[in-house]
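Issue 218. Parser rejects a valid record. Input:
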Amino acid sequence: MSESTHDTMDVYEEKSMMLVEQLIEKGIVEMPPDEPILVHVPTGAQFSSAQNLAHYHSGWKAGTAE
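Output the parser choked on:
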């Protein structure tokens, strides 16, 4: 993997974490105590990765937008 690709992945990971933190503040995502998972409250979907949750939420949001 090239250095520039690695840098891009780090930036996306940071943005994913920021998005997840915002979603937690809004009550859209929950982190159950003592469990290493993220729960997308509107759908009940569970994720172990902030990046996967960010992708899922973006698709869900696009699919529910009017």
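Fixed in the parser; the record now loads. The CA atoms of residues 26 and 56 lie 17 Å apart.
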